[in-house]
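G., the chain you wanted modeled:
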Amino acid sequence: MYRFLLISLILYIIRRNSAYPFLSCRKCCLYGIKESFNGREATMSFLPTNRRTLIILLLAGVATGLVNGLVGIGGGTIVIPALVFFLGVAQHQAHGTSLAVILPTSLTSALIYWYHGHLPISLTFIVALTGMVGAYIGARLMNLISPKNLRLLLGLFMIVAGVRMLWPSS
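Predicted structure as tokens:
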């Protein structure tokens, strides 16, 4: 449930900064946003008013957590396609939402892995620090890539990663 609330909060923040066209009037209803065109401030409920949207977000959240905890990959493989293809969210916003969802899901999984002795702290610390540098650079570069190319890049990366996992390790 906290994943869904986090996604709703992120959508609210994005909406408040309203430079994002994916939350047009038509889509505002999709996300449960009540908007007034009389100059009053927009308000948003944390639960979508559309039942289909709620079901898709709940299923995507559960699937993301399951995949994260089971095989240790981020939610991008689930969240981004669900948001883009089922809810019509713009590619860049889907990536941003996916990144925000990674923190609570990964933290939850990491704590359980740590509890069972499967989290080497020295390796984690080094990879986390260098990963933060790479994340900063990647997030800056993402703004230079068109949505079409970003989708293509994500698809190619998922294919390469999947094929690589099928090869036996040496």
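The chain has one domain: 2-166.

Shout if anything looks off.
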